[in-house]
Amino acid sequence: MLRIGLTGGIGSGKTTISNLFHSVHNIPVIDADEISRELLLPSGKAYHEVINLFGSSCVLESKQIDRKFLREKIFINEDLRILLEQIIHPKVQAEITSQIESINSRYCIIVIPLLIESNMQSIVDRILVVETNKQNQLNRVATRDRCDKDHVEDIIKSQIDSNERLKHADDIITNNGEPEDLILQIRQLHQKYLALAI
Ligand code: ADP
Is the entire prediction scored with pTM above 0.70? Predict the structure, then answer.
Protein backbone atom coordinates (compact mmCIF):
# COMPACT_ATOMS: atom_id res chain seq x y z
CA MET A 1 0.00 0.00 0.00
CA LEU A 2 1.24 3.44 -0.93
CA ARG A 3 1.66 5.66 2.15
CA ILE A 4 1.03 9.35 1.56
CA GLY A 5 2.22 11.67 4.33
CA LEU A 6 0.07 14.81 4.40
CA THR A 7 1.65 17.80 6.08
CA GLY A 8 1.48 21.59 6.17
CA GLY A 9 1.49 24.48 8.60
CA ILE A 10 -1.24 25.18 11.14
CA GLY A 11 -4.51 26.08 9.40
CA SER A 12 -3.20 25.18 5.96
CA GLY A 13 -6.10 22.78 5.44
CA LYS A 14 -4.77 19.32 6.37
CA THR A 15 -7.95 18.22 8.14
CA THR A 16 -10.20 19.62 5.42
CA ILE A 17 -8.20 17.82 2.75
CA SER A 18 -7.89 14.49 4.53
CA ASN A 19 -11.66 14.58 5.17
CA LEU A 20 -12.20 15.05 1.42
CA PHE A 21 -9.90 12.15 0.49
CA HIS A 22 -11.99 10.06 2.86
CA SER A 23 -15.49 11.28 2.05
CA VAL A 24 -15.12 11.68 -1.73
CA HIS A 25 -12.73 8.82 -2.54
CA ASN A 26 -13.19 6.52 0.44
CA ILE A 27 -9.47 6.60 1.26
CA PRO A 28 -8.46 5.61 4.79
CA VAL A 29 -6.91 8.37 6.90
CA ILE A 30 -4.53 7.96 9.82
CA ASP A 31 -4.18 11.03 12.03
CA ALA A 32 -0.96 11.52 14.04
CA ASP A 33 -2.54 14.21 16.23
CA GLU A 34 -5.37 11.90 17.19
CA ILE A 35 -2.84 9.19 18.07
CA SER A 36 -0.87 11.69 20.22
CA ARG A 37 -4.05 12.62 22.08
CA GLU A 38 -4.86 8.97 22.75
CA LEU A 39 -1.34 8.31 24.03
CA LEU A 40 -1.89 10.94 26.74
CA LEU A 41 -5.17 9.47 28.00
CA PRO A 42 -5.02 7.68 31.38
CA SER A 43 -5.22 4.40 29.44
CA GLY A 44 -2.63 5.62 26.92
CA LYS A 45 0.91 4.35 26.51
CA ALA A 46 2.60 7.70 27.28
CA TYR A 47 0.48 8.73 30.29
CA HIS A 48 2.82 7.76 33.12
CA GLU A 49 6.04 8.77 31.37
CA VAL A 50 4.64 12.23 30.65
CA ILE A 51 3.53 12.71 34.27
CA ASN A 52 7.02 11.66 35.41
CA LEU A 53 8.48 14.33 33.14
CA PHE A 54 6.15 17.23 33.98
CA GLY A 55 5.18 16.38 37.54
CA SER A 56 1.73 15.89 39.01
CA SER A 57 0.74 19.51 38.30
CA CYS A 58 0.10 18.49 34.69
CA VAL A 59 -2.76 16.23 35.83
CA LEU A 60 -6.29 17.62 36.02
CA GLU A 61 -8.81 16.58 38.67
CA SER A 62 -10.39 14.35 36.06
CA LYS A 63 -7.05 12.45 35.89
CA GLN A 64 -6.60 13.65 32.31
CA ILE A 65 -3.28 15.21 31.36
CA ASP A 66 -3.72 18.95 30.83
CA ARG A 67 -2.56 19.33 27.24
CA LYS A 68 -2.72 23.12 27.42
CA PHE A 69 -0.30 23.01 30.39
CA LEU A 70 2.07 20.83 28.35
CA ARG A 71 1.83 23.13 25.31
CA GLU A 72 2.64 26.19 27.41
CA LYS A 73 5.59 24.52 29.13
CA ILE A 74 7.23 23.25 25.96
CA PHE A 75 6.66 26.56 24.21
CA ILE A 76 9.05 28.26 26.62
CA ASN A 77 11.35 25.32 27.38
CA GLU A 78 13.14 23.70 24.46
CA ASP A 79 14.68 20.92 26.59
CA LEU A 80 11.26 19.85 27.84
CA ARG A 81 9.92 19.88 24.29
CA ILE A 82 12.69 17.55 23.16
CA LEU A 83 12.15 15.20 26.10
CA LEU A 84 8.39 15.13 25.47
CA GLU A 85 8.97 14.40 21.79
CA GLN A 86 11.34 11.59 22.72
CA ILE A 87 8.47 9.98 24.61
CA ILE A 88 5.71 10.68 22.08
CA HIS A 89 7.23 10.39 18.60
CA PRO A 90 8.42 6.75 18.69
CA LYS A 91 5.02 5.72 20.06
CA VAL A 92 3.16 7.68 17.38
CA GLN A 93 5.37 6.09 14.75
CA ALA A 94 4.75 2.58 16.12
CA GLU A 95 0.99 3.16 16.21
CA ILE A 96 0.96 4.53 12.65
CA THR A 97 2.86 1.44 11.48
CA SER A 98 0.42 -0.84 13.26
CA GLN A 99 -2.62 0.98 11.80
CA ILE A 100 -1.10 0.78 8.30
CA GLU A 101 -0.83 -2.99 8.68
CA SER A 102 -4.54 -3.26 9.41
CA ILE A 103 -5.66 -1.26 6.35
CA ASN A 104 -6.66 -2.79 3.05
CA SER A 105 -6.50 -0.06 0.40
CA ARG A 106 -4.37 0.90 -2.60
CA TYR A 107 -3.12 3.92 -0.71
CA CYS A 108 -3.75 5.76 2.54
CA ILE A 109 -3.34 9.30 3.82
CA ILE A 110 -1.34 9.80 7.00
CA VAL A 111 -1.79 13.29 8.43
CA ILE A 112 1.40 14.27 10.25
CA PRO A 113 1.49 18.02 10.99
CA LEU A 114 5.14 17.91 12.08
CA LEU A 115 6.27 15.33 9.51
CA ILE A 116 9.43 17.20 8.55
CA GLU A 117 10.14 18.73 11.96
CA SER A 118 9.97 15.31 13.61
CA ASN A 119 11.92 13.53 10.90
CA MET A 120 9.24 10.94 10.14
CA GLN A 121 9.81 10.98 6.37
CA SER A 122 10.90 7.35 6.37
CA ILE A 123 7.47 6.02 7.38
CA VAL A 124 5.81 7.42 4.24
CA ASP A 125 6.39 6.83 0.52
CA ARG A 126 5.43 10.30 -0.66
CA ILE A 127 5.01 13.69 0.98
CA LEU A 128 1.99 15.82 0.12
CA VAL A 129 2.35 19.39 1.34
CA VAL A 130 -0.64 21.73 1.73
CA GLU A 131 0.21 25.34 1.16
CA THR A 132 -1.75 28.46 1.94
CA ASN A 133 -0.63 32.04 2.41
CA LYS A 134 0.05 33.37 5.88
CA GLN A 135 -2.91 35.76 5.86
CA ASN A 136 -5.27 32.83 5.25
CA GLN A 137 -3.56 30.84 8.00
CA LEU A 138 -3.99 33.70 10.49
CA ASN A 139 -7.63 34.35 9.58
CA ARG A 140 -8.73 30.73 9.38
CA VAL A 141 -7.08 29.57 12.61
CA ALA A 142 -8.18 32.67 14.57
CA THR A 143 -11.76 31.91 13.49
CA ARG A 144 -11.54 28.13 13.98
CA ASP A 145 -9.87 28.25 17.42
CA ARG A 146 -11.39 31.59 18.55
CA CYS A 147 -7.94 32.90 19.44
CA ASP A 148 -6.07 36.06 18.53
CA LYS A 149 -3.82 36.29 15.52
CA ASP A 150 -0.68 36.98 17.57
CA HIS A 151 -1.06 33.55 19.11
CA VAL A 152 -1.39 31.96 15.66
CA GLU A 153 1.65 33.92 14.49
CA ASP A 154 3.69 32.48 17.39
CA ILE A 155 2.69 28.95 16.40
CA ILE A 156 3.56 29.59 12.75
CA LYS A 157 6.99 30.84 13.86
CA SER A 158 7.58 27.67 15.87
CA GLN A 159 6.96 25.52 12.77
CA ILE A 160 9.34 24.90 9.91
CA ASP A 161 9.45 27.70 7.33
CA SER A 162 6.99 27.00 4.55
CA ASN A 163 9.64 27.23 1.79
CA GLU A 164 11.75 24.73 3.69
CA ARG A 165 8.75 22.39 4.00
CA LEU A 166 8.06 22.67 0.29
CA LYS A 167 11.55 21.39 -0.51
CA HIS A 168 10.43 18.01 0.84
CA ALA A 169 7.22 17.90 -1.18
CA ASP A 170 6.54 15.26 -3.81
CA ASP A 171 3.10 16.78 -4.37
CA ILE A 172 1.57 20.11 -3.41
CA ILE A 173 -2.02 21.26 -2.85
CA THR A 174 -2.57 25.00 -2.90
CA ASN A 175 -5.40 26.07 -0.60
CA ASN A 176 -5.75 29.78 -1.22
CA GLY A 177 -9.17 29.67 -2.88
CA GLU A 178 -12.59 28.33 -1.97
CA PRO A 179 -12.87 24.91 -0.30
CA GLU A 180 -14.53 23.67 -3.53
CA ASP A 181 -11.26 24.37 -5.39
CA LEU A 182 -9.70 21.55 -3.40
CA ILE A 183 -11.96 18.91 -4.93
CA LEU A 184 -10.31 19.02 -8.36
CA GLN A 185 -6.76 19.00 -6.97
CA ILE A 186 -7.64 16.05 -4.76
CA ARG A 187 -9.27 14.16 -7.66
CA GLN A 188 -6.11 14.58 -9.75
CA LEU A 189 -3.90 13.38 -6.91
CA HIS A 190 -6.26 10.46 -6.27
CA GLN A 191 -5.80 9.32 -9.90
CA LYS A 192 -2.04 9.77 -9.62
CA TYR A 193 -1.80 7.78 -6.38
CA LEU A 194 -3.94 4.96 -7.78
CA ALA A 195 -1.61 4.76 -10.78
CA LEU A 196 1.49 4.81 -8.57
CA ALA A 197 0.04 2.18 -6.25
CA ILE A 198 -0.06 -0.49 -8.96
P1 ADP B 1 -5.25 22.26 9.56
O2 ADP B 1 -5.84 20.88 9.81
O3 ADP B 1 -4.12 22.25 8.57
O4 ADP B 1 -4.87 23.00 10.82
P5 ADP B 1 -7.97 22.92 8.75
O6 ADP B 1 -8.31 21.94 7.69
O7 ADP B 1 -8.55 22.68 10.12
O8 ADP B 1 -6.38 23.13 8.85
O9 ADP B 1 -8.39 24.36 8.22
C10 ADP B 1 -8.31 25.49 9.09
C11 ADP B 1 -9.66 26.20 9.10
O12 ADP B 1 -9.82 26.82 7.84
C13 ADP B 1 -10.85 25.27 9.29
O14 ADP B 1 -11.82 25.95 10.07
C15 ADP B 1 -11.34 25.03 7.86
O16 ADP B 1 -12.74 24.78 7.84
C17 ADP B 1 -11.00 26.35 7.19
N18 ADP B 1 -10.64 26.22 5.75
C19 ADP B 1 -9.86 25.28 5.20
N20 ADP B 1 -9.72 25.51 3.87
C21 ADP B 1 -10.45 26.63 3.60
C22 ADP B 1 -10.71 27.38 2.40
N23 ADP B 1 -10.20 27.04 1.23
N24 ADP B 1 -11.50 28.49 2.51
C25 ADP B 1 -12.02 28.85 3.72
N26 ADP B 1 -11.80 28.18 4.87
C27 ADP B 1 -11.03 27.08 4.83
Answer: yes
